[in-house]
Amino acid sequence: MENKVDKKEKIKSIDKALDLLEFLSVNEQEIGITEISKKLHMGLSTVHRILTTLKSRGYVIQNQQTTKYRLGIKLFELGCAVQSTKRLLEIAKPYLRQLSQITNETANLAILEGKEVIYLDTIESPEILRTEIMAGTRTPAHCTALGKVLLASISDEEFNSLYKNDEPLTSLTSNSITSLEELKKHLKEVKEQGYALDREEYKIGVNCIAVPIFGRNGAIAAISITGPASRFTIGEMKNVKDKLMAISKEISNQL
Predict the structure, then answer these.
(1) What domains does the chain contain, in order, with CATH numbers?
(2) What pLDDT, in 10s, does the model give residues 218-229?
(3) Could you give the CA distance from residue 104 to residue 241 in angstroms, rounded to a whole number?
(4) Which residues, 6 or more positions from 103, have their beta carbon under 8 angstroms from its beta carbon?
(5) What tens digit of pLDDT does each residue of 88-99 get?
(6) pTM attached to this predicted model
(7) Which of helix, strand or coil describes residue 154?
(8) Nearest Cα residue to 234 out of 153, 171, 175
(9) Backbone angles phi, psi at 135, to 5 degrees
């Protein structure tokens, strides 16, 4: 019962914080705590706590002379991130269709978040026997082509912050990389060759090849072709490598 009450209170707090942010967004002038309290019908102490938290995270800025508040740059940064992802999806969509049509296999677009890959978009193969992955699906980065090609693009510092020496790697199939040292060695090869292969490492019977998409500050996403290992063999994967890399370059040039 106590957990339910806590959860309810947390939701109310978030709701009030969002009300406050939306109120500040429609006011061009800086606003003080008292005025915010009256307009939103919130207690002064509640408004003060919310503003203090938002200020510490960069969502609001306080004028030290007037003590009044206005929106901070953090919301602009979040908006840019959303716009960037939307633009990536819009640009990549026709290329994913093209890749799927050329190969008759499934084409994917994904990003790296921590130690996982998040699929943003997928164009399924027209074949009856095909791989099916929904947008929003998360998979371990170390045993997927998409994940490995993106892990190969991050700095050593970023990699070491994600993977601790004492943490075992999840084994999803007998082909999955389970050693951190083996993964580091493999990622070095991936970085040198510019693409990554998943040879039934994530799922038995499924192969995949992926290449990175670059933005101004390095790799921001990756595209891949996935298919049944019986049809999309290692030879077939290498046959589509150059086309995949060329399309990745075209997408990158438009970002």
Answers:
(1) 2-72 (1.10.10.10), 81-254 (3.30.450.40)
(2) 899 999 999 999
(3) 15
(4) 125, 225, 227, 232, 236, 240
(5) 999 999 999 999
(6) 0.72
(7) coil
(8) 175
(9) -60, 135
